[in-house]
Specification:
The structure is a single chain. The protein is an all-beta fold. Helices cover 3% and strands 43% of the residues. It is built from two helices and 34 strands. A four-stranded antiparallel sheet has the order 1-27-26-25, with no helix packed on it. A four-stranded antiparallel sheet has the order 2-3-4-5, with no helix packed on it. A four-stranded antiparallel sheet has the order 9-10-11-12, with no helix packed on it. A hairpin with a 4-residue loop joins strand 30 (353-361) and strand 31.
Amino acid sequence: MLKRILYLTAVFSISTNILIAQSNFWEEVALPGTVNPIPTCFTSTSNGDVYCGTNSHGVFKSTDNGSTWTQVFSTQWNVESLGANSIDDIFAGTTGGVYRSSNSGASWPAIGCPTSFSMLNIIYALGINSSDELFGATNYGIYISTDNGAIWNSTVLDTPYFEDICIKPSDDIFVSTAWDGIFVSRDNGDTWTAINTGLPPHPFYITMAILSIDFVGDTLYCGVSSNRGVYKSTDNGSNWFSSGLDTSSVTCLAIDSNGYIYAGTNLGGAYLSNDHANTWTGINSGLTNDHVTELFITPDGHILAGTYYALFRSTQTIVSIDHMTTMGFSLSQNYPNPFNPTTTLKYNLPETSDITLNIFDITGRNIKQWSVSNQQSGWHEVIWDGTDTHGNIVSTGVYIYSLKAGDFIDTKKMVFMK
């Protein structure tokens, strides 16, 4: 399962119980022509199209953020993972090898597989780094392709039974396994290090989501099976500690641009945390199946939940959720993030205020500024096109944006990728 990486720092004001009481959180959406589908994975492309892989029903495509779907790839194989690179080639890892579409899902030729041995053709997870190099997790090791999937080579990590791959913007590669915990490579797969201090004893299945919450260090979250819940690391994986849901088997995680963390479980439905996994609230109204297989945030901010035999979509976007849960001054995480070519910066004013919104590069140099006097209360947004004050496109990298409104000041990070 490919996990998209979202950066966040968030301010929350009221309990999610208020949100959940408003209406059903979920509604079922149909995958046409299927009976009891099992959605297993999702990805999206730069034009906003969303793709859903399934068990035995191939790949479906939505051009309206998950409201309606069309089958674009029929295959006998289970689709275990999906991913899209920077030029919107879409890759499907299946129990019968790897397939690629370079025409928005119209055709899916098979491409090079890691090996001719059939068990290694089962691709459980795909990851794509900033150079569009592919990483595939098989039954018996991690493989890399540097030529868009034509040729695959083994890395030195040959531990069996991989579950997930997450690649950060820094190109640190994290992989989770069924038997040996979590490994990280910081040199593009040349070497790997186990990072399991504080995790429960093996064996257990792990699913991961990785995010950054401040300017000085990385926080990682992983979901663990066998009723062990969510674990959290605040030092880039060196040490882990339990972070709730410790009576649940967590099957998947997703993090939205408001900073909300969503956890899918086996037979416990879905949960939401609005305080960095310190507390959790069930979000199961409208969810008629409690075995959640995968969670995904669409480009417009809806949440998709694959379950055993049905696909569900949140009735509200994360922007609506953010509106309902913010009472005072706030600066939301930009969306999308990472982004290219534009991103939206949203903020809330509880009263008329003079505001200044600045963007800084990682060295602290101010590259863009917006100032408004006596701006009315309510939600406002600024769309940044990745240019500086002179109209020049900025370099790929991490940028900091800061809002000052009266005595209120807040800052967050975002990533621009060319």
